[in-house]
Amino acid sequence: MASKPTFSEEISNLLYAAHGNPIQTCVQCGTCAGTCPVAPFMDQTPRRLIGLIQADMKAEVLASNTYWFCASCYHCTVRCPKGIDIAGLMYALKRYSMWKGTYREGLVGPVFSETFVKTILAGGRSYEPVLAPSYMFSFGLREFLQEAQTATGLMLKGRLPILPPRIKRLEGFKRVVDRVIPRGGAS
Amino acid sequence: MKTYALFPGCSLEKIAQSYMSSALETTSRVGITLKELEDWNCCGATAYFHVDELLAYTLSARNLAMAEKDGLDVVAPCAACFKNMYFTSKYLKADPDLAEHINYALEQDGLQFAGTSAVRHLLEVFAEDVDPQALQAAITNPLKGLRVVPYYGCQVVRPRKDHENVEQPQFFESLLTAIGATPVDFPEKTRCCGGSLVITSRQAALNLVRDLLQSAVDREAAVIATACPMCQVNLECYQQQVNQEFGTHLSVPVMYFTQIIGLAMGVTPKRLGIGLELVSTTPIAAFAEGLAESAK
Known about the structure:
By secondary structure, chain A is mainly α. Chain A has eleven helices and no strands. Chain B is of the alpha/beta class.
């Protein structure tokens, strides 16, 4: 009977595609946690998260906000003495949690990323006003007003687009996308 | 004379339009032509890699293939666009199966990726590709005494590409010295501004921004020079929110490095997009003007 891969193996295989050494080589030195500028805001430091994966503590890993707080600054990756691509691991965990639909409720990251991708697939380029609803509703009144103030300032300076940009060969672009990821009738 | 394919990226169209105008103004004065890549698409930013890696590589490969068609190396002024394009090119060249799969898709738009165009960040172009003598000749108003933070941010220098010094890069400092300015010794020069966390994890990002701005104040910097639209927007446009959130009174000008080079070249502030900021950069433009006046 074929044996089911452990959670640790499953995640390591995701990471294997991401160019670094397998997480099993981690020695728990904590260089990543000491380097990460966002670590104080994460519920698990990167070091602890890797420890949880190694211990196959799947539920704890999937309940964590750590990877959605990663800003992709790659500081941990360049400093890891074992050559693990930790930022790559965070990306892999983001994809895993989106794929399985297991990300923690209330996180803005997954919704924002999904909206961003849809925007690009529709027009070929990013367009800020369409992205705003994916995060504005998560804000409290104070944050909402502050954000609106910033947006108004940028608008007055002519730094926000009025119309969504579109690339010219949009049909060709969509056919390219359909060939890597068939989207059925979605396009 | 060298011509590059310019990949502006979505930010340079509007929110970072001053980066665009100052890039064109300054490169043209040192014998470099930036030819905008026709019909470029978004690089995918970080969001695309959250959803699908293969699609993210495909998006960048389409842009690279179009630059190859023109036979030009690519320059990206945005750090995130640069990182995505640089590593897409590197990974596709190292993995023929991946390249074949993506080329099968690109066929649909009459394109093919071969990996013949080099990918450069605009800061590297100024620091390494521009002839130092041509740069010296174009600097008519050396910015003597202007204390500038060389803020590299993340993705210009990371991930590591080869054996370069990712902990203590020096090329930004050298460039600032070459235009007569004084680079500020800034320990946080490669520390993250928070990137898109300003949207998805606001509190975390505002903390990072505050720390960077406070350090610039502590080191008596006149201005922070950035090489990325994300850094510029976070440090500048969110400065007011930082002040509201933490009760600080920060007012630190944050400019694209090309705007500062432009001032050293005697370009008028308007042509460099100066005046579109939410935190005034007038003191910096006035300082440059003062130097030019006293040299007369």
